[in-house]
Every structure is written in C-alpha cells, then in structure tokens.
Amino acid sequence: MSEGQREDWFQSNFIVTFAAIAAAAFAVFVPWELTRAEPIVDLRLLLRRQFSVAFLMMMIVGATMFSSTQLLPQLLQENFSYTAALSGLALMPGGLAMLVMMPLAAQMTNFVQPKYLMAFGMLIVAVAMWHLTSLPPDASFGFIAWARVYQMIGMPLLFVPITTLSYADLPAEKTNQASSLINVARNLGGSIGVSMAITVLAQREQFHQVRLTEHLVPSSPLYQETLREAAAHFASAGATQVDAQRRAFGWLGQLVQSQSAILSYIDVFWMFAIVAALMVPVALLLLRAIELRPGRVVH
Predict the structure, then answer these.
(1) Cβ distance 229 to 255 under 8 Å?
(2) For residue 297, what are the β-bridge partners?
(3) What's the maximum distance between 2 C-alpha atoms anywhere in the chain?
(4) Which fold has domain 49-210+255-291?
(5) How does residue 242 score in pLDDT terms, banded at 50, 70 and 90?
(6) Which of the pair, 288 or 50, is modelled with greater confidence?
(7) Rounded to whole angstroms, what are the CA distances from 69 to 50, 63, 74, 158, 296?
(8) Which of 106, 108, 216, 86 is nearest to 163 (CA)?
(9) CA–CA distance, 4 with 124 (Å, rounded to integer)
(10) What predicted TM-score, i.e. pTM, was given to this entire model?
(11) 128 near 151, Cβ under 8 Å?
(12) How far apart are CA 46 and CA 37, in angstroms?
C-alpha cells in the first residue's frame, strides 16, 4: 500500500469512526433530553408545529446562505482567477443589501403576517439561485455581485419573521430555549448545506467531465478542427510542432475540466433553488397567522 493509499484509508476510517460515535451519541441524547424535567435542550419544542416549521425554515436559510458564501468565492478564485480580495469585493454588495433590508424587514413584520414575508423571502432566494444557474463561462464581476444582491435581499425577510414566529404561542420561560434552538438550526443547516454542496459539487464535476470527454474522439471533425487551431496558435507563438501539439492537448484538457466545474456549480445552484422553492408552500400552509399588534390580527 502506497503512502497516498494509506492516507486515504486513514482519513476514510477516521470519518466513519467519528460518524458512528456521533450517531450513537445522538441516539442517546434525544431520549435523554425528552425524558428530563428540566432538559439542557428542550427538544419538546420541536413537537410544536409553529416552532418546528420555523426551525426547518431557519435550517434552509442557514444552508443556503453559508453554502453560497463558501461556494461563490471558491468558484471565482478557482475558475475565474479572482484574488481573495476581489472575490470578497464581489460579495460585498450583497452584505450592503442585507444591511439595508434588515430594518425594513423588521418594520414590515408590524403590518404583514410573518408567514407571507417568509414565503416571499424564500421565493426571492429561489429566484436568486435560479439566476445563478445561468452562470456563463465568462461571467463578469457584475453578474456575480448582482446575483449575491438578489439573494441577500430575501434573507432579512426570513431572519426576522422566523425569529418572530419561533416565539409565537410559547410560554415566556421557554424563550431562551427557543432562541438557542433557532441559532442551532441556522448553524446546523449551514454545516449540512456546505457538506451537501461540496459532495454534490465533486460528484457532478466527475459526471460532467466523463460526459464531456465522450465527445473528444479522433473521429469527431469538431475535435480535430479545435485541436488543429489550438496547435496552430501555440506554433505561431514560437513552439515547435511537437510541443504545440502537446500544449494543444493540455489546453483542451483544461477546457474540459473548467467547463465541467462550472456545470457542477450550476447543478448545486439548481439544488438550492429547488429546495428554496419547495419551502414557499410550506410557509404558507403550515404556519398560522399571529397577532401583529395588540387588538389587531391579519388573516
């Protein structure tokens, strides 16, 4: 067994071992907390429909926000040759949009039912992720910046209403527990979302690479023409005929790898767009109307 194989074996067994330990601990943790009079984490709150839906929605929010925050800079740096600073600048307008929307969303909860704001916010997030599925190979700085702005506009319409709904119908002494669980939902959703995104990204990149290389056959006229033009380009730059041919093959391989990577990112964006769209009817159908102001209820 080579050193690389030993390292892969150790890593895979390390992951499996600690996953088994975590699963066993969780299996003990849940019944323990449910049977305590004063549990550290009151999981019984998740049995309430209103709170459980808010918990689920916050998980989706965390998954979408944290995953896109990791994927977009990674995409820009690996496939568009952005520096870390430039990729951060591409995300900055989204942060400013969220900063502006936060107080507006807080004011809107006084006049609009939170479940409608949540449904609208999820719809905005779904449309923003769908917009990213049109990612071109030569995407500009503005395309990425505006895509992030669209997504961040919807986030405050989710954060504020989810917090409001999570406290609805709860006894005052349960608010601390509710606040803790909602924060857990955001972080847990972020962890799950990032893990799923990275896994799907790797699998889909392999899939697209296999599919694209199926067209790189010597009998294809398009393949022969592309290879000939690439070799001629390198030869005109001073390369020998043999070196130009070798560099043409290398360039074509890099092109396939780059295109398969972009297609895999598009697949991940599709996944988050579909998940966000599915949450729209969940918010509308499962969440109840709550009192917005003393003596005033909007249905």
Answers:
(1) no
(2) 291
(3) 84
(4) Growth Hormone; Chain: A; (1.20.1250)
(5) confident
(6) 50
(7) 28, 10, 9, 17, 39
(8) 106
(9) 45
(10) 0.83
(11) yes
(12) 16
